[in-house]
Amino acid sequence: MKQIKYTRKAAPAHMVGDGFKVRTFISSAMWKDMSPFLMLDYIEPTEYLPTDHPRGVDVHPHKGFETVSILWEGALEHEDSSGGKGKLFAGDVQWMTAGAGILHKEFHEKEFSKKGGVLHGAQLWVNLPAKDKSTPASYQDIRSASIPEILIDGNKGKVRIIAGEMNGVKGAAKTFTRINIFDAHAKADASFDLSVVDGDHTTLLVLKGTVLINNDKTAREGDMLLFDNAGEKIHLQTNNETHLLLLSGEPITEPVAAYGPFVMNTQQEIIDAIDDFNAGKFGHLN
Q1: Whether this model's pTM surpasses 0.70
Q2: Which one of 79, 99, 215, 259 has the largest count of C-beta atoms within 10 Å of its C-beta?
Q3: pLDDT value for 58
Q4: pLDDT single digits (tens) 82-102
């Protein structure tokens, strides 16, 4: 079993643009324990009033990593300079590879904006190894129906395999390094294992409910648990309706240089990224 290394809470909620109330769970001080994950912004459930002007974040750049947006409630629209474009609804995921450079924007979907409602989701930043940081920008539009599921014994819930593999079931996303993203929804009194790779960094976020970890430690809503690298399983027993997000991955043991929306390996590469952006090399987006 993987043993808990430490538990932490998110920073206080803040707004990203005018449409995303988020709590940030990963800081740069944690990268050595979290690689390849650089950021986890939890978009906590928030009720938005109707408007004719969709809320969100307008055109901005990224380079050297990937963004993964998971939506549980509400609706979003995305467009980027690689030609990627789509709408996200409950259960959908968008996986954007910034790679050599991209411009994109994210807003509440127009009809959702007009009606108003609850928005609930998460966004991850996933690092790319040095050899892939200049890969062409691309976009994966992953519909909820295409995400494989593993049922929990006794009809007690399901584990959605967004990326990676568990029990021979492979996830929907294509990744550059070994990454697992498991989205688990369980009823009360469920008992099940989440399987990961020995040696990988592993994190478990409790989004809802209370859960007993490895018959030993209790974790509650809002807890993020980081585990030791050794071990291949985490045993879970739920006390009530529970929602969990597991992240694990092969560590990228390379230097990280980060500045705003750019993640490279050296400061010179950051300067080059800014120069490329200013020169219009990330493409164009209205």
Answers
A1: yes
A2: 99
A3: 97
A4: 999 999 999 999 999 999 999
